[in-house]
Amino acid sequence: MTTWNLTLFTFIHAWSGRSVFADVAAIFFAEYLPYLLVVGFLILVFRQSGARKKFYLFAEGAVTVILARGIITESIKYFYNVQRPFAALGFSPLIGESGASFPSGHMAWFFALVVVVWYVSRTWGIWYLALTAAMGIARIYAGIHWPLDILGGIVVGVVSGFFIHWLFRDARAALSPVKEAAAGGALEAI
Question: Which of 153, 168, 170 is closest to 62 using CA atoms?
């Protein structure tokens, strides 16, 4: 383990247990905020105009999350097993977690979603970025992740988000109003 990883973990986690309010806030951000972010994403999907755009956004989000969390993160954890901080340092975390620590599955999942949301709405994307970053800090504070776990999850999520967005470029182009108008005009000419 790198020195900066342990030093930063110790600095953030040292605040744990000093304030009931801070502990409750950290538990909320680490454990319950993810549910609200998923609900928020579904609201964003249903706010899209047209069934095809709704389906496209949902599909891009789902495929991105499956790649980041379900495939890449799990593959890394299978080959590279890192103990969680509470197991390595022998303390009780604020919330229960099990399994390998690196990379953070929550960060992979939600930073992948940040990229998807960012392309749809910059305003929502900024909120998702800030809330997901707060979730990562809260998971360190709670004692269930090292800073490097969070950073690794961020990289997996962002790379997955950009890759799937690039992969879906043809489907996205088909939804473009300019392309639809051009196709409609071509059909009328026939």
Answer: 168
Query: 3-state secondary structure string, 3-49?
Result: HHHHHHHHHHHCCCCCCHHHHHHHHHHHHHHHHHHHHHHHHHHHCCC
pTM (2 d.p.): 0.84
Confidence of residue 176 (pLDDT cuts 50, 70, 90): low
In angstroms, the CA 178 to CA 132 distance is: 34
CB atoms within 10 A of CB 51: 8
Candidates 141, 105, 117, 97; CA nearest to 41 is: 117
Residue 188 has pLDDT above 80, yes or no: no
| Cα 146 to Cα 7: distance, rounded to the nearest angstrom | 10
Per-residue pLDDT reduced to its tens digit, 98-121: 888 899 999 999 999 999 999 999
| Residue 68 host element (H or E) | none
Q: Which residues lie below 8 Å from residue 45, measured CB to CB, with a gap of 6+?
A: 54, 57, 58, 61
Whole-angstrom Cα distance, residue 90 to residue 98? 14
DSSP annotation of 70 reads I
Domain ranges of the chain: 41-79+103-135+147-178
